Amino acid sequence: MLDGAGATFPAVLYSKWYDEYFKLTGVKVNYQSIGSGGGIKGISDQTVDFGATDGPMTDEQMKAARGGEILHIPMALGAVVPTYNIPELKTPMKLTSDTLAGIFLGDITMWNDARLVADNPDLAAVNKDITTVHRSDGSGTTFVFVDYLSAVSKTWKDRIGVATSVNWPHGLGAKGNEGVAGEVKSNLYSIGYVEYVYAAKNRLGFAWMQNQSGAFIEPTLESVSAAAAGAAANIAPDLRASIVNAPGPRAYPISGFTWLLAYRTMKDLARAQALTRVMWWSIHDGQKFAGDLGYVPIPDPIVEKAADKILSIHVNDRRAFPHS
Amino acid sequence: MRSDSHPSLLEDAASGSALSRNSDLLFSRGTAVIAGGSIVLLVGLAVLLIHDSLPSLSRYGPNFFVTTKWDPVFEEFGAAHYAYGTLVTSILALILATPVGIATALFVAEYAPRWLGDPIGFVIELLAVIPSVIFGLWAFFILTPIVRFTIEPALKAAIGPLPVIGGLFVGPTIGRDYFTAGVILAIMILPTIMSISREIFRAVPDTQREGMLALGATRWEMISNAVLPYARGGLAGAMGLGLARAMGETMAVTMVIGNSSSAISASLLTPGYTMASAIANQFTEADKEIYFAAIVQVALMLLVVATIVNLLSRVLVARITSKFSDAA
Amino acid sequence: MSAASDARPALSLHRTQPGELGRRIVDGIATTLIVGSAVLGVAILAVILGYVVIKGLPAWNIPFFTERPLPYGEVGGGVLPAIAGTMVMLILAAAIAIPAGLATAIYLSEFGRGTFPRAVRFVLDVLAGMPSIVVGVFVWALLVRQVIGTFSALAGAVALAIIMIPIVTRTVEEILRLVPNHLREASLALGAPYWRTVLFVILPTARAGVITGVMLSLARAGGETAPLLLTALGNQFLSFDLLRPMASLPVQIYSYAVAPFDDWHTKAWGSALILILVIGTLSLLTRLATRGARMY
């Protein structure tokens, strides 16, 4: 049995994957969604076999990892969507980088603020306080979200910064994507940020974000793929990539990769084989499950690079992935 | 409380065979070693916590306890608002639970006949065994909407406009705040306060009661003049133990308090953290060494505060019950 | 009546004194408030239990008890790994806590005079009042991070055992103290070594109290969530591997409650119902055992 822990962002996909993988091979891959921070800490402390994160590890974190070099292996792409609970709004909310930053910084406090009404006339009738919901745990979803906000708002970058866990100026904290969706669902007039599927599956409204070209983009398979299109060509060799605020007319601006974290040098051959096998399956066969569940498959050039990373995992100079 | 044990019958056994003497020695030493294990455990725990929080202790010093900026990005950690959250919710719980707990204890000990009082006491003690997470579940789904849509708006409308204490009810009524946490904590510590108070009342000697009744006092006068004054110290101890329990509660609190690191605010309608819920939310995810050390330091804070309150309360309770058993 | 008796002052014992009405009103108010508090306390318990039953029963079907969880968002499946996990970890925790607690209780009751036993008692008081999240932090730092090296059922069991030991020790010690000396003296006079006396004469006599202590501590440990979140983590598969993460009912309840899926909410209530039944039964049995205990 393999034990992994980490991001809640891809948890919907991973829980499907590992259920299917168990039915296929009988190998149990136990994945606990405790947040990307937990995945990073878990693999760093070597308390789990693999970690999962949507916020790439920093150089400092990678140096601190107890078992040596850590590999980031991309598994899927997803969209971080601002999700809200406003019964009066019948059409999707439209948010710009300024209005989104304003809401989460606390500059915009009412739903019928002029700046919001400018893009959403229906909000003029909603004279209610905005309740923001953020992650209380260390989160890659947070990372992608604040990465975007830092890219588009200097105030955000200077005041709050980018990390898996930041000092939110206000709002409720909830654990996991599940928790944020749960809070938004049970709190009228609240807004949070979650991976697309958590909003869609719970029939929560999600906003269309304005991208660099000025268009309001709906988070879809196409728009997220468009955001990743540029990355495929010039992704960093260690595959840690940020694709927020991507250029391109159809690109959804708050998109991100999600990775598995594993050590290049492992100690237990059986375990390493099992891990490399399931990762191999995930980036090849597993990709077909992504679309239905609200995720986006990784582009082929990146699949190849990910495969290379998997093949580089070894135990005592011996490649872990079995020669077939 | 009797703190002596049996006279050492081991000396009497010494007249037995050499074999039995050695096995007795082994027995007494063996159990002593295991008993000593608990001391090793506690010391080890304290040492480990101090060791792991050293990076934070040395870097932030005493400021840690008074600053409220908890910023993992810019590496500024201050846990004053976590301590504040613990304090506010626990004290609110105490304020709500103490009258009901002591009154119920009076009912069981002074008013009700045994056939009624004992079962009622047992039923309320059943509240004590309900796990924290189930209180959290109930509070999350049932209590919060009631608080949010009924209780808080009513309190805000009634008390909000008043000077000074109006500041307790400022802000949007979301239901995920200190207030809801205080209410669920009150329910959780009610049985603790009740059962200890009941023991205290039972320990008050009857001579006092009989004296008052002979003078023609009503039952309430008898209680307020003969029982309560003598039980004061013990009741304080009961409250203290309730307080200690409230401070250490994690799950029920974390599910309704809002988990927000915003600064200290007087309003009970603010979402916040307690020390325990902060640890629960952030411990497994503290992915930087200094962040981890800061969390462990919060755990250390919690341990010290809870232990002090706990021990002080036990002393208070013990003194009263021994005073009465001597006097009886 | 004669005119003479009319002139005598009335000696009625029920003559109303000045201010007595006020005192009676105060007494009435006090009584009402006090009885009301008791009613409130019982009502709160009834409400909470009522909700758990009403909301939890719909979750109870065969798959709920026999299957493992389905992937996120899919309706169906069950909580078998959590039920099994709680049982396994409780049994393991008891295996650690009962011998340790018994030995400590025996030491304190039979040999307990002096500073060392006083120190042990003090330490046990501290441990009894320790927030369980702190226990979790300690066991994580010691076992998960170092000694065992993974999140594991064993670490979870150790955390639970640490919580159980003070309860077992305190309950058993009190019972042992109540066993009268003549039993000890008789056994020793017959030439039995002390350890035999304790194990085969005293302990069996105190049987009811020992069982009470065990059940009380199990009821407490069975509901603990925070330490398990940090030590045993969780598992969506059925597993009996003690060196790997394991599911448990309290953690399952928490995970399901805060998630957005309605099916999971129902399952959270259903799991809570299971937990309440188990813990409630243990508590009830404990109460009955002490009620009927007649030792001498």
Structural overview:
The complex is a heterotrimer of chains A (324), B (328) and C (296). By secondary structure, chain A is an alpha/beta fold. Helix content of chain A is 38%, strand content 20%. Chain A has helices at residues 11-25, 36-45, 59-64, 97-105, 114-119, 140-152, 154-159, 176-186, 196-201, 221-233, 269-283, 300-311, and strands at residues 2-6, 29-33, 50-53, 70-84, 94-95, 131-135, 172-174, 190-195, 205-206, 208-210, 216-217, 255-263, 314-315, 318-319. In chain A, the strands form three sheets. In chain A, strands 1, 2, 3, 4, 6, 7, 8, 9 and 12 form a nine-stranded mixed β-sheet that branches. Chain A has a three-stranded mixed β-sheet with strand order 5-10-11. Chain A has a two-stranded antiparallel sheet with strand order 13-14. In chain A, helix 11 runs antiparallel to helix 12. Chain A starts with a strand and ends in a 5-residue tail after the last strand. Chain B has 328 residues and is mainly α. Helix content of chain B is 74%, strand content 1%. A two-stranded antiparallel ribbon of chain B has the order 1-2. The longest helix of chain B has 43 residues, at 18-60. The relative contact order of chain B is 0.14. The model of chain B is unreliable at 1-5 and 12-16 (pLDDT under 50). Chain C contains 13 helices and no strands. Chain C has helices spanning 3-7, 20-56, 62-66, 80-111, 115-128, 132-147, 153-178, 181-189, 194-205, 207-222, 226-231, 249-258, 262-292. Chain C starts with a helix and ends with a helix. Chains in contact: A-B, A-C, B-C. At the B-C interface, helix 1, helix 2, helix 3, helix 4 and helix 5 of B face helix 2, helix 4, helix 5, helix 6 and helix 7 of C.
Structural class of chain A: alpha/beta
Strand content of chain B: under 5%
Largest sheet: number of strands, sense, barrel closure of chain B: 2 strands, antiparallel
Instruction: Find the CATH superfamily of the largest domain in chain B.
Output: MetI-like
**Major sheet description of chain A:** 9 strands, mixed
How many helices of chain A?
12
What's the mean pLDDT score of chain A? 91
In the CATH scheme, the class of the largest domain in chain B would be Mainly Alpha
Q: Order of strands across the biggest sheet of chain B?
A: 1-2
